[in-house]
Amino acid sequence: MSEQRLDIEEVGSVTVARFLDKKILDEANIDKIGQELFGLVEEDGRKQIVLDFSLVEYLSSAALGKLITMHKKVTAAGGKCALCNIQKDIMDVFKITQLHKVLTLCGDLDDALSKF
Amino acid sequence: MPAASQLNVQIPSDTTEALAVQEQIVALMEKHDYSMRDIFAMRLSLEEGITNAIKHGNGGDPNKKVSISADVSDERLRVEVADEGEGFDPKDVPDPTDIDFIDRACGRGLMLMRAYLNSFEYSEGGTKLTMERERNSELPIIDDDDD
User: Fold this and answer.
1) What CATH superfamily classification does A6-109 receive?
2) A16 with A82: CB under 8 angstroms?
3) Across the interface, do B40 and A26 touch by the CB < 8 Å criterion?
4) CB contact residues (below 8 A), chain B span 73-92, against chain A
5) Which among A37, A61, B12, B57 is placed 20 to 30 Å from A80, CA to CA?
6) What ipTM describes this predicted complex?
């Protein structure tokens, strides 16, 4: 069993998935994170999901790709996905790529939970 | 003032090897007391540039190499990344912020490098990337008007 890349917590009807990596950069790691993320929707049937970035210091475009795919999968399942606790450098990456207009970016965890 | 630091390496088409090179270049930046902001910008740019060379340039072919050279001075950092692929024209890569491409899962690496680097150029038919960032660069410029 490979090491988990996400810490999962249930808050009411919402699943909070916290990234455990500081750097979401290399392909192999990103693929593992993608599998865990997509499994929340496709295998566990979860539809209300918060992604907590509080530990994340680096994020590559490949990781952005996984987040977009996750957003699509949750939306297609009739659910919602919100992102929270995003550090400023990471928020800049979302703004440069204009993904702040596509994804639901929130302040802290309470803010994200209030979206559901 | 320490002399400029150089690094010249050739790696196989393996992203794990690419990460090790990133760490070596970041170590040179730390030696020259670059800021965390500069290091964030270069780590991201190195990841995008070297990954592009491995995946899109060399097509992940383990028999093809990626050559990386870095020159780190107190004023700026210059990195060249060369692959052994067929090359490409950056103009053929669609704008990932275009409404038709905004939800595509790929295609943002070039955009990020342009945002974080003072100089960013593909030459030799798209097989060689040259990137530069000045110490304490203001980049990236973030437009907060459309939050």
Assistant:
1) STAS domain (3.30.750.24)
2) no
3) no
4) none
5) A61
6) 0.92
